[in-house]
Amino acid sequence: MTAEAEVLSLKNIHMAFGGVVAIQDFSLDLRAGEIVALVGDNGAGKSTLIKIVSGVYTPTSGTIRLGGETTSFADASSARSKGIEVVYQDLALADQQPVYMNMFLGRELTKPPFGLLDKARMRQESQTLVDELDVRIPSASSTIRDLSGGQRQGIAIARATHWASKLILLDEPTAALGVAETARVEELIANLKAKNLAILIISHSLDQVFKLSDRICVLRRGEQIGIRETAKTDKNEIVSMITGVA
Predict the structure, then answer these.
(1) Fold of the 6-91+148-243 domain
(2) Lower CB count within 10 Å: N or C terminus of the chain?
(3) Rounded mean pLDDT of the chain?
């Protein structure tokens, strides 16, 4: 892997909470324009890893490199400022607000001289983005509570895409969706590769993992079992790695 292609590099990451080891010696490199799936049973350490990469947790030991440079995150805001965005299963959207206000939540645009909200510009930029990503909603002025689960997930992914310059983390992005909406969101995720971002996705659906990912990283009880190229493995091997049963 060239330094130019490397977006995120995790080396020998260890995470312990008191005497409980959550992550044991984890290493992974992510490249631009690549989707890596993180899989494992409940309690395997997947969400802990997402929280380490997104700045929520500071690892007990190990090295994080971003864009080839060693870095650390003081908190989630620090990770966001360095181009990392997360889409959680619960979306973290403000239901009573319109789409465009959610798109700029905490990063609202203002206009001089009095610092009033520039709603017209936020609305326009949001509409351009949802059109570009083909997120099918009535308009950027629609209120979040009036949208379906799939549309809301589309907005959450669009927001992450708007602000991420390096990496998007997706934590079970379709867990609460029906079949049709899941397919729509999967299409949206696949299209993110064209934006040359690195994407790390947690999913319990192996069908989804094999459909979307370039590589699969398996965790079991906090231990990294292995990484496989998706095209060179199959579900039986991945299930064996997850369960420890040959």
Answers:
(1) Rossmann fold (3.40.50)
(2) C
(3) 93
Q: What's the burial of 113, exposed, middle or buried (CB within 10 Å: 0-12/13-18/19+)?
A: exposed
CA distance 73 to 69: 13
Buried-exposed string 87-99: b where 16+ CB fall within 10 A, e elsewhere: bbbebebeeeebb
Coil, helix or strand at residue 185: helix
Closest CA to 156 of 64, 100, 92: 92
Distance separating alpha carbons of residues 119 and 9, to the nearest angstrom = 38
pTM comes to 0.91
**Residue 209 near residue 234 (C-beta atoms within 8 A):** no
pLDDT confidence bin for 91, thresholds 50/70/90:
low
Q: Which two tokens stand for residue 169?
A: 């983390």
pLDDT band at 191 (very low <50, low <70, confident <90, very high): confident
Instruction: Indicate the pLDDT class of residue 5, thresholds 50, 70 and 90.
Output: confident
Rounded average pLDDT over 172-176: 88
Question: For 92-117, what is the mean pLDDT?
Answer: 94
* First-last CA distance in the chain: 31
User: Can you list the positions of beta strands (E) in the chain?
Assistant: 6-17, 20-31, 35-39, 61-66, 69-71, 84-87, 110-111, 116-117, 167-171, 198-202, 215-220, 223-229
The span from the CA of 187 to the CA of 130, in Å, is 14
Residue closest to 62 by CA, chosen among 101, 20, 121, 9? 9
